[in-house]
Structures are given as structure tokens and as C-alpha cells.
Amino acid sequence: MRWEVKEHENGKWGIYLCEEFWRYPDKPVCYGESVDFDGADQRVKWMNENEEKLEANPEPQDDEDVEPEGESDED
Fold first, then answer.
1. Is residue 1 over pLDDT 70?
2. Predicted pLDDT at 60
3. Please, what is the end-to-end C-alpha distance for the chain in angstroms?
């Protein structure tokens, strides 16, 4: 996912999910709103950097590296 800043009609700045990641093509996703561009832009940078780190280093799923109950090598 990636986020971007867009200006609202009321003069505030919205943090929006980039259109390519929308689930529904006619419904934009707004994460939040800021009174100034710099605040919204900084938040978007943090969110996008965090997402890049997660994509580069995915955590193992809960079911990986776990033996199902009753199927251990121990007797």
C-alpha cells in the first residue's frame, strides 16, 4: 500500500490511499486529515517508509514453524 496527500475543498489536507490500492474503484480511502500540508506530508512519508520495511522483511506467518498438535517427534 502507498499513501498520498491531497487538498480538500475546505483547505485541509487529506491522507489518501493511492488509487491503485483501492478495493472499490469509486470509493477513495481517506486515512486522516491535517490542517497543514507539512504535517500530512510527514505522516505519509512515515507510513510509506514503514510499508516498504514490512514488504522488504515480511514476518513469518503464525502457522509457519509450528508443529500441529499431536505430531511431535517426542515419545
1. yes
2. 73
3. 47
pLDDT tens per residue, range 28-70: 999 999 999 999 999 999 999 999 999 898 877 666 555 566 6
Cα–Cα distance measured from residue 26 to residue 49, given in angstroms and rounded to the nearest whole number: 27
Supply 71's cell numbers: 505430531
Whether 32 contacts 15, CB under 8 Å: yes
Closest CA to 31 of 49, 44, 46: 44
Which pLDDT does position 68 carry in this prediction? 60
Q: Residue 33: which of 7, 14, 60, 52 has the closest Cα?
A: 14
